[in-house]
Backbone:
């Protein structure tokens, strides 16, 4: 049986780097700011490939865990878009 790695929670409120090195998205929590439906786009740091996008309804909270090995971000992870979201908590491999 494979050993599970540590998970790190990162809170973001704006665009920019989440983690510089290779990592995996394990889960995410999004909180709407009440200004309309919210969107977040997560991209690979190296080549700006969009690897994850999620929406949250106006005034609501969205939460999901990514099954199995999560979503791999080989060149690191960045938030390229965060609209109408008060804050996002992103769970990644440490």
Residues:
């Amino acid at each position: 049986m494979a050993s599970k790695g540590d998970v790190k929670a990162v809170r973001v409120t704006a665009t920019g780097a989440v983690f510089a090195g290779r990592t995996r998205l394990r889960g995410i929590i999004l909180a709407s700011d009440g200004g309309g439906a919210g969107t977040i786009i997560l991209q690979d740091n190296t080549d700006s490939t969009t690897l994850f996008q999620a929406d949250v309804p106006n005034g609501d909270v969205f939460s999901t865990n990514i099954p199995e090995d999560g979503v791999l971000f080989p060149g690191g992870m960045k938030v390229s878009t965060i609209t109408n979201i008060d804050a996002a908590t992103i769970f990644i491999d440490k």
